[in-house]
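We were asked to recover a plausible sequence for a given structure. The inputs and outputs are reproduced exactly as logged, with field labels preserved.

PROBLEM: sequence recovery
POSITIONS: 361
GIVEN STRUCTURE:
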C-alpha cells in the first residue's frame, strides 16, 4: 500500500485503494486482458491511417463535441446486428466503455448494485466517486438467482443496477426474459438497468438493445475494445433512450472524444466485417481451449465470451498463475480462490497455454 505523505490532501476514502490494472508483463503469450489476439490487417491499417491523416490539418480546432457522425455510424452498426432502428440520439460515445460507466454514475444518483462476481470496475468507479455499491451475490455456480434477488433489486430505491452479460469473469450470459424481469422490477423504484455487453459480439444470445424500446430504463454499454480488436483506440458507447443519452451531455468533459479517435472509429465502422472477421475463429478456439482444459481434468465454465474461467487444480490460484508466468504465459487471477481466467488467443497461443498448463499441474 502506498504511504501517502501528510501534505497531500488525498480523500481518506481513497487512501487504501490500489490502482486498477492487470500486471502488464512482457511474456510471449499474453492471455490476461480479453483483447482480440489478431493484429489489424495492413488494409485496415492503411484505411485508418488515411482517415487520421485527413484530420491532421484541423487539429488546431476542437473536435465535434457531440460526435454526431460517429454516433450515427454506431447506431447503424447496432441496427445491422439487432434489427433495431436507433439514430445518433440513442447513442453516446466515449474513451472506452469505462468512461461511459463513469458518466452513468456521475449522472445518476442513488442506490448502485450489481451481481458479483463481475467486472470489478463497477464497484471501483463507484468508490472513486464516493458512492456505495451494494453486492448481490451470484449463486454457488455463479448464476443469477432471480427469486433470491428480487428484494435486492429494489434495494433502497432509485439508482443503477449493473448486469454484465456475457459476465466477466464467469462467461455466462443472461436471457432476455430474465432481463425483462429485472427491468420491470427496477422500473417500479426508478432504477436504470445498466447491461454491460463488452463481449456481446461473441455471445449466442440476442443483445439487450432490442429491449430498450419496451423498457426505457434499460441502457446497454458496448465497446470496440474486445471483439472489434480496437482496444488501443479507446472507444466505448452507450445505447439507450434519448433521455438517458441527454443526461450524459450534462456530465461529459468538454470535447472529451478527440478528432483522431472519432476519425479512427468512423473508419473502423466502415470496415466492420473486416474488423469482426476473427470472431468465428475465436469462438472455435474457445471450444478448443474448453476441451483442452477438460482433457487436463480441469473444470472450465461454459463461456459465451472470449475467455474461460476454470477451476479443478490443486495449487492455489497464485501458485498456478506464477508457474504459468515462469513458462511465458500470462493469464488472469481474478481474485476468486481456486479459479483462473484465460483469454482465448490465436491457435498457437492456446496450444502454448495448454502445454504450459499441463507442465504446471
Ligand atoms: C473489458 C471490459 C470493459 C471495457 O472496457 P473499455 O474501457 O471499453 O476498454 C467493460 N466492461 C467489461 C465487463 C469488460 O470486461
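RECOVERED SEQUENCE:
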Amino acid at each position: 500500500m502506498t504511504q501517502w505523505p501528510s501534505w497531500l490532501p488525498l480523500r481518506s476514502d481513497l487512501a487504501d485503494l490500489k490502482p486498477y490494472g492487470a500486471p502488464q508483463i512482457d511474456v510471449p503469450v499474453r492471455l490476461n486482458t480479453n483483447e482480440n489476439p489478431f493484429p489489424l490487417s495492413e488494409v485496415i491499417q492503411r484505411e485508418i491511417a488515411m482517415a487520421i491523416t485527413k484530420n491532421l490539418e484541423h487539429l488546431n480546432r476542437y473536435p465535434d463535441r457531440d460526435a454526431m457522425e460517429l454516433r450515427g455510424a454506431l447506431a447503424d452498426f447496432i441496427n445491422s446486428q439487432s434489427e433495431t432502428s436507433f439514430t445518433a440520439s440513442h447513442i453516446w460515445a466515449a474513451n472506452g466503455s469505462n468512461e461511459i460507466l463513469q458518466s452513468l454514475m456521475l449522472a445518476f444518483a442513488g442506490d448502485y448494485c450489481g451481481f458479483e462476481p463481475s467486472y470489478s470496475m463497477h464497484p471501483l468507479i463507484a468508490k472513486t466517486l464516493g458512492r456505495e455499491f451494494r453486492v448481490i451475490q451470484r449463486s454457488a455456480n455463479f448464476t443469477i438467482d432471480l427469486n433470491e434477488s428480487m428484494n435486492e433489486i429494489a434495494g433502497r430505491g432509485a439508482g443503477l443496477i449493473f448486469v454484465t452479460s456475457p459476465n466477466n469473469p464467469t462467461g455466462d450470459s443472461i436471457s432476455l426474459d430474465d432481463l425483462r424481469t429485472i427491468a420491470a422490477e427496477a422500473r417500479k423504484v426508478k432504477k436504470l438497468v445498466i447491461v454491460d455487453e463488452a463481449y456481446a459480439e461473441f455471445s449466442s444470445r440476442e443483445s439487450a438493445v432490442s429491449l430498450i424500446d419496451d423498457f426505457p430504463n434499460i441502457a446497454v454499454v458496448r465497446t470496440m475494445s474486445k471483439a472489434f480488436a480496437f482496444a488501443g483506440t479507446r472507444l466505448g458507447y452507450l445505447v439507450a433512450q434519448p433521455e438517458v443519452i441527454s443526461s450524459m451531455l450534462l456530465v461529459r468533459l468538454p470535447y472529451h472524444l478527440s478528432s483522431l479517435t472519432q476519425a479512427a472509429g468512423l473508419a473502423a465502422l466502415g470496415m466492420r466485417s473486416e474488423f469482426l472477421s476473427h470472431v468465428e475463429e475465436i469462438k472455435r478456439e474457445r471450444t478448443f481451449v474448453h476441451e483442452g482444459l477438460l482433457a487436463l481434468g480441469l473444470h472450465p465454465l461454459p463461456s459465451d465470451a472470449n475467455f474461460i474461467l476454470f477451476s479443478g487444480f490443486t495449487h492455489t490460484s497464485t501458485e498456478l498463475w506464477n508457474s504459468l508466468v515462469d513458462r511465458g504465459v500470462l493469464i488472469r487471477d481474478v481474485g476468486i480462490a481456486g479459479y483462473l481466467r484465460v483469454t482465448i488467443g490465436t491457435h498457437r497461443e492456446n496450444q502454448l497455454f495448454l502445454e504450459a498448463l499441463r507442465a504446471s499441474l
